[in-house]
Backbone:
């Protein structure tokens, strides 16, 4: 860790703080808008769909980096938090839409930001920038994230005393229990039964999440805008965390827990914080996944799904945020590119995984970020000099 | 966390995202852009999405075999509207997100005019909304869950629905077998099994029968001893097992070993050549199904013969339904004024009395297929025709 | 009372299977300190190879008319399966795990996941096992040996419990009474010290993998006896779940501890069967994982495990 080339000094001036607080959000908005208004309309639906999943996977991989990469805890229950967020958000959007929009069909009521790539503008009925449907969707997603964070706290507090592999096993058990619980929920009230939907109180609807049948007909709100807004915010948050003093405390836990404790780091508190934060983002990503597939099915969120994200962060390099972003992107596209090979594609994928682990055990970037790699740094330095000269 | 975003940090974030987008574009660019109409001179493309790998692969493969046979046959006859048919099949590994991507790719990249799929209702419910949104008709060969066609006016099916099948099973047990006290054993983690269980229990009770106990198991269980012991202690006349043949064979074996000799009765999930794996354990057992390969109608015998010579096995119900779904689609294509989504959907909806392998198919107002149902009896692992059951809609 | 005894017998039988698989998890963990997630697929391979080898030997499947094979054919199938799967275990260790001896634990874990994915999908290929379920061979007649108080003891149960007992006793002798066993214990205590003492660590690790794979293969063989009918394809969730429960058994007993694995296997088998019989049966997986979490919270090192104190 001593070789960390980047050191961000203190807090900077107090006056500039609010403005600086807003910077990452402005940047995230810009990225999201670019993806939505420039990329979306100019690419074919398949590319857009794959990008949607790539964005969701980026969020999940980067949030898992906060736990596995920063504090060195090994969680294999990430899909469980994703499922919690997805069910909460999907259920809320579905049932709230039924309450607020008096139409027989639970349809999409989003604005221009939630209109998918198929949307063709209609001059007579222009979509608003933010509609009531969008607000319901945003609220539901945040609720999904918060409930997932709460679950993270409940699981994290007692179990984070455990070390390494044992924590891994507990998170695995948690994920499986979440799956069993959601499979035990009651049948979904379909939109065809509008009367029943109106008459049932909301707290009863909360348990009608479809059980084994899965929860279907969730309106599709997830677009490149929302997905990449979330992905960019997650990346920005992770980056700031990594180079902040809490982040350094977390990394010190990863390097040597006993030493960190001796230096006065409150190990449990930082572990729980990282865990809750990661669960929050995982819940949000799960919410957007539900809103892009239109379906929640607990059986798709077992520990095999959690492995997907672990593979991404190990491949990118544990603790490297840009590595996680890159690996998540590549690993989402790779199976799609291999689709023609039918039954051989998962074999190829498995072999690739083994070979990469053997040939490059530290992952693509190790703990370093892409701009900290030798060649890129030299390039940046040159550009920086050129910029200041001009 | 204190705010400490320097210019450098901004550069970093920007660079990270730039890197990601660069990767995406380099990989995505080869797919090109454009939403042009489908090419009107080459072969007509139709898409099939199915689980060709994963734990339900066997269903996907059967259906795909049936569809391939239909495509070959149609092309040998000169295709549709003078053009050949070309079939594109994508594997979704039995996963919902893969299903969404596969369907999107079939529609947006491959520009298929119509879709066939899926067997499992939960995946039809994931793929269907995409087809509906993009205005491409989809025919599910064998999703029996009633909700599937509720997706919208682009979604059809050629099989009966579970409610109908549950009723038929109940009626057969009460009137034909004359049994009144029963138990059920179903997979609570599986949409098909738990759905059909509910429909059967409701129908059986409404017709005056009695269900003494409903036992459940979960995905991945292969030991049904405890549930079967409870059923044995309840002293019933039959067990309704709405599951797939992958489970039923083992359930039957364990039941017989426990000394339970009462009949097991199930639904179309049983239908497979693999029932032979049960040996004589499934004797005196019955299931409701889409068709019987012993049916002497010429359509059925021609199909069975062709299937056997191509794949070397007796076609199961899924293969027959895949074949029917494709043939019904070709029929509608021929009748449709154009291959545009709306026109084609209209032509499919207007299908009346289509003579399929699985019986005469009429698409009703809810885009479901009104058809007959057969009950098969398992004799030494081979399903034999037992009865036709007619229940009101 | 009779159904209680029946549940106990079932629990012990399945517990024996869990124990055999758990031994593989625990030995690898004891030596290499990593969770071998591909172990459940080795068990699957064992079950499918039983079926394949029995087919080569001409044993009738499922509902065959000629009746069960002679007892020595069954033993032959068991031995051949164990040898074949042992060789596969050796090859996997040599090609996939040995190059990673110095790498972080997590990498080895990912590699294990890769191996697991590979085995699952390779088995699905048409010319390997295919995607359809296949009938199990008829290796034992389904006869009841005797009945005590309404409980029927079947030949299958005796064969399964007997074979697992023999194998477990064999393990006990191997680990605590032979030179190789001392070497294994030494490597598990400290790899570096062991190599300084002149032990060929690579050889010991290879040996451990082969033994673990052979025990899993035996478990696969016994599984086809206990659950006749058909085997589901290699990627089916049931295999993973069985492996996972065996892994839970290893952890509950104290991972890295050979006797703990046996104890844990029996315990998990009994708890699972008793809870299925007397609580809501569809939550059986949840019970097992709840037990796991409870044990980890109150005795993280497992029942027979040794607590490790980190030195500064």
Residues:
């Amino acid at each position: 860790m001593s070789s960390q080339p980047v050191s961000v000094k203190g807090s900077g001036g107090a006056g500039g703080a609010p403005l600086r607080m807003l910077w990452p959000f402005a940047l995230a908005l810009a990225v999201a808008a670019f993806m939505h208004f420039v990329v979306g309309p100019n690419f074919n639906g398949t590319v857009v769909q794959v990008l949607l999943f790539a964005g969701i996977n980026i969020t999940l991989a980067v949030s898992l980096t906060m736990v596995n990469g920063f504090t060195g805890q090994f969680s294999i229950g990430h899909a469980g938090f994703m499922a919690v967020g997805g069910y909460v958000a999907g259920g809320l959007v579905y049932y709230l839409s039924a309450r607020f929009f008096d139409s027989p069909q639970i349809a999409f009521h989003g604005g221009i930001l939630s209109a998918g790539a198929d949307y063709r503008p209609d001059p007579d009925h222009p979509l608003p920038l933010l509609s009531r449907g969008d607000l319901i969707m945003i609220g539901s997603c945040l609720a999904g994230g918060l409930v997932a964070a709460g679950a993270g706290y409940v699981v994290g507090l007692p179990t984070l005393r455990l070390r390494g592999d044992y924590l891994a096993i507990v998170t695995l058990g948690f994920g499986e229990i979440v799956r069993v619980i959601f499979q035990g929920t009651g049948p979904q009230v379909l939109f065809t039964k509008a009367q029943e939907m109106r008459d049932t109180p909301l707290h009863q609807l909360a348990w009608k999440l479809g059980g084994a049948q899965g929860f279907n007909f969730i309106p599709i709100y997830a677009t490149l805008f929302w997905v990449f807004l979330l992905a960019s915010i997650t990346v920005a948050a992770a980056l700031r965390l990594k180079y902040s003093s809490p982040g350094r405390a977390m990394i010190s836990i990863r390097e040597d827990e006993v030493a960190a404790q001796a230096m006065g780091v409150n190990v449990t508190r930082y572990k729980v914080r990282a865990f809750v934060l990661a669960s929050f983002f995982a819940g949000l990503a799960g919410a957007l996944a539900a809103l892009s597939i239109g379906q929640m099915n607990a059986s798709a969120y077992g520990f095999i799904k959690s492995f997907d994200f672990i593979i991404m962060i190990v491949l990118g390099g544990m603790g490297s945020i840009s590595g996680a972003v890159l690996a998540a992107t590549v690993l989402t596209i790779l199976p799609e590119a291999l689709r023609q090979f039918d039954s051989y594609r998962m074999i190829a994928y498995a072999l690739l995984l083994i070979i990469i682990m053997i040939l490059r055990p530290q992952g693509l970037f190790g703990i370093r970020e892409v701009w900290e790699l030798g060649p890129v740094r030299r390039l940046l330095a040159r550009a920086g000099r050129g910029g200041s000269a001009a | 966390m204190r705010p400490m975003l320097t210019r450098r940090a901004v550069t970093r974030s920007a660079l990270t995202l730039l890197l990601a987008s660069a990767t995406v574009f380099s990989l995505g660019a080869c797919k090109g852009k454009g939403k042009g109409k489908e090419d009107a001179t080459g072969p007509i493309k139709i898409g099939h999405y199915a689980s060709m790998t994963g734990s339900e692969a066997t269903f996907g493969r059967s259906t795909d075999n049936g569809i391939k046979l239909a495509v070959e046959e149609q092309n040998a006859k000169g295709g549709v509207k003078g053009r050949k048919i070309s079939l594109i099949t994508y594997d979704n590994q039995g996963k919902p997100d893969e299903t969404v991507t596969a369907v999107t790719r079939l529609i947006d990249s491959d520009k298929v005019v119509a879709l066939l799929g899926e067997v499992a209702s939960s995946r039809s419910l994931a793929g269907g909304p995409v087809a509906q949104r993009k205005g491409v008709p989809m025919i599910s060969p064998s999703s029996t869950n009633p909700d599937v066609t509720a997706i919208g006016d682009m979604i059809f099916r050629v099989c009966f629905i579970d409610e109908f099948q549950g009723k038929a099973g109940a009626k057969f047990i009460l009137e034909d077998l004359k049994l009144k006290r029963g138990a059920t054993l179903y997979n609570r983690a599986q949409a098909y099994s738990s759905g059909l269980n509910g429909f059967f229990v409701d129908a059986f009770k409404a017709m005056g029968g009695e269900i003494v106990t409903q036992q459940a198991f979960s995905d991945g269980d292969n030991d049904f001893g405890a549930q079967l012991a409870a059923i044995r202690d309840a002293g019933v006349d039959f067990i309704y097992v709405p599951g797939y043949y992958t489970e039923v064979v083992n359930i039957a074996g364990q039941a017989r070993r426990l000394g339970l000799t009462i009949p097991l009765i199930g639904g179309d999930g049983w239908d497979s050549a693999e029932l032979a794996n049960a040996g004589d354990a499934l004797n005196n057992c019955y299931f409701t199904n889409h068709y019987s390969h012993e049916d002497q109608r010429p359509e059925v015998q021609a199909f069975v013969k062709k299937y056997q010579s191509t794949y070397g096995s007796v076609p199961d119900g899924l293969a027959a339904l895949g074949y029917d779904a494709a043939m019904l689609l070709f029929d509608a294509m021929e009748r449709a004024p154009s291959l545009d989504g709306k026109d084609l959907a209209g032509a499919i909806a207007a299908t009346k009395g289509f003579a399929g392998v699985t019986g005469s198919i009429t698409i009703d107002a809810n885009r479901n297929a009104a058809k007959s149902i057969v009950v098969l009896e398992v004799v030494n692992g081979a399903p034999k025709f037992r009865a036709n059951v007619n229940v009101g809609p | 009372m009779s159904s209680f005894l029946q549940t106990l017998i079932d629990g012990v039988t399945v517990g024996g299977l869990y124990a055999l698989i758990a031994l593989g998890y625990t030995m690898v963990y004891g030596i290499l300190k990593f969770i071998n997630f591909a172990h459940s697929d080795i068990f699957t391979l064992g079950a499918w190879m039983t079926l394949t080898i029995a087919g080569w030997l001409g044993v009738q499947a499922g509902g065959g008319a000629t009746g069960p094979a002679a007892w020595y054919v069954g033993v032959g199938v068991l031995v051949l399966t164990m040898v074949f799967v042992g060789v596969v275990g050796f090859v996997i260790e040599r090609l996939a795990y040995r190059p990673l001896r110095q790498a972080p634990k997590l990498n080895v874990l990912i590699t294990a996941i890769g191996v697991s994915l590979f085995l699952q999908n390779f088995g699905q290929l048409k010319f390997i096992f295919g995607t359809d379920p296949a009938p199990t061979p008829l290796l034992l007649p389904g006869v009841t040996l005797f009945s005590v108080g309404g409980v029927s003891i079947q030949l299958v149960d005796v064969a399964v419990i007997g074979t697992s007992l023999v194998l477990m006793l064999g393990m006990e002798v191997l680990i605590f009474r032979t030179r190789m066993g001392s070497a294994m214990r030494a490597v598990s205590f400290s790899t570096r010290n062991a190599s300084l003492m002149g032990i060929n660590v690579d050889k010991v690790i290879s040996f451990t993998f082969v033994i673990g794979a052979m025990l899993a293969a035996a478990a696969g063989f016994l599984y086809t006896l206990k659950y006749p009918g058909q085997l589901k394809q290699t990627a089916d969730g049931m295999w993973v779940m069985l492996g996972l429960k065996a892994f839970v058994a290893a952890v509950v007993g104290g991972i890295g501890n050979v006797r703990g694995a046996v104890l844990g296997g029996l315990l998990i088998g009994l708890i699972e069967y008793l809870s299925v019989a007397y609580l809501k049966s569809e939550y059986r997986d949840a019970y097992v994982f709840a037990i796991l979490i409870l044990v980890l919270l109150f005795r993280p090192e497992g029942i027979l495990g040794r607590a490790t104190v980190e030195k500064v």
